[in-house]
Structure formats: structure tokens, C-alpha cells
């Protein structure tokens, strides 16, 4: 999750810090989306209980669960229509970092606790040719992950900061 670290401290020190920190609770069916816009860059972080993406939180126990986890990770590696900045901004995906929830190495923490409450995290970085035109992001995570009942989105950028709830994990985040 190395890409967003320079930008997301802004979220933690902003007026949004209380909602962002409170949103860290492990609640099935809900995930958090953090959005930062700065100097032609758009950075998005998604985090939530693994259950909302694949229907379980423990290490995969059979081929069907392994396949479900692999498919979810692959979908998040290429977010395409899952998170789509307005076309006028000319944003291009430049990096995707999806943490495998049961893998631990020097670059990623194991995102599962001993009680089996695993988290899924993804981060995406875009470069935008016309950042002044970046007025909104269409989110369609709920279409790919129907177990997502609610997505809590927070954003910060040159036009201000704010928060919104996307029922069903889809909708539009207005950045102005």
C-alpha cells in the first residue's frame, strides 16, 4: 500500500479525521473508499471485510473459495468500470496494488486476525491529463461485489473535502 501514503495523511489531519477513523470498524457488508486528488494525481484506497467481496473471511478451504478469492483480487487489480473518473479528466490508471489478505511479507501486512476477520485492501493511482475537469467518480463496486451493502466514501482535493455514503456499493462521488 505504498502509493497513497504521501497523500492520505491529509485525510487523517483534515476535518474528516473523526469519520475516517470511526469508519475503521469491521462491519460486514460495508467498505471504506478514500479518495485524494493532488497535482494531476488521483489516488483511491478501498478497504473492507473480505466477506463483502467473497462471502467468507477465513483462509480459503476449497477450490471454490480459492477461485472466488482469486477472481476478486483479479477484478481489483484491473478496476476498469469498478471506479471510473469522469472521462473529461482524461485519467489513466498507472498503478494498482491489491493486498492478498492471507499473505505476509516485507511489503504487506497479513490482513487477517487470529479470529478469522480478514480485510481486503486495494489502492489505485491514476494520472489525469485534465485534473481541473475531475469533478466526480462513478463507483460500481456493488455490481461486481453484490455483498457490499454500503460504501463509505471520503475525499480530499483542491476543490475541498467531503464524505458520502453509496448504498449497495455503487453510485457517484461528487468531488466538488
Describe what you observe in this structure.
The longest helix is centred in the middle third of the chain and has 15 residues, at 63-77. The chain has 176 residues and is of the alpha+beta class. It has helices spanning 9-13, 17-22, 51-54, 63-77, 141-144; strands at 30-38, 41-49, 83-85, 91-99, 119-128, 136-140, 150-157, 160-167, 170-174.
Strand content: 35-45%
Tally the helices: what do you get?
5
Characterize the main sheet: 6 strands, mixed
Order of helices and strands: HHEEHHEEEEHEEE
Count of distinct strands = 9
* Oligomeric composition of the shown chains: single chain
Average pLDDT, all residues: 84
Helix-residue proportion: 10-25%
Uncertain stretches of 5 or more adjacent residues: 7-23, 105-113
Structural class of the secondary elements? alpha+beta
Outline of the structure:
This protein has 176 residues and is α+β, with helices and mostly antiparallel strands. Helices cover 19% and strands 38% of the residues. The strands form 2 sheets. It has a 6-stranded mixed beta sheet. The chain has a 3-stranded antiparallel beta sheet with strand order 3-6-9.
Provide the fold topology.
Layout: H1 9-13, H2 17-22, E1 30-38, E2 41-49, H3 51-54, H4 63-77, E3 83-85, E4 91-99, E5 119-128, E6 136-140, H5 141-144, E7 150-157, E8 160-167, E9 170-174
Parallel strand pairs: 1-7
Antiparallel strand pairs: 1-2, 2-5, 3-6, 4-5, 6-9, 7-8
Feature tags:
176 residues; alpha+beta; 5 helices; globular
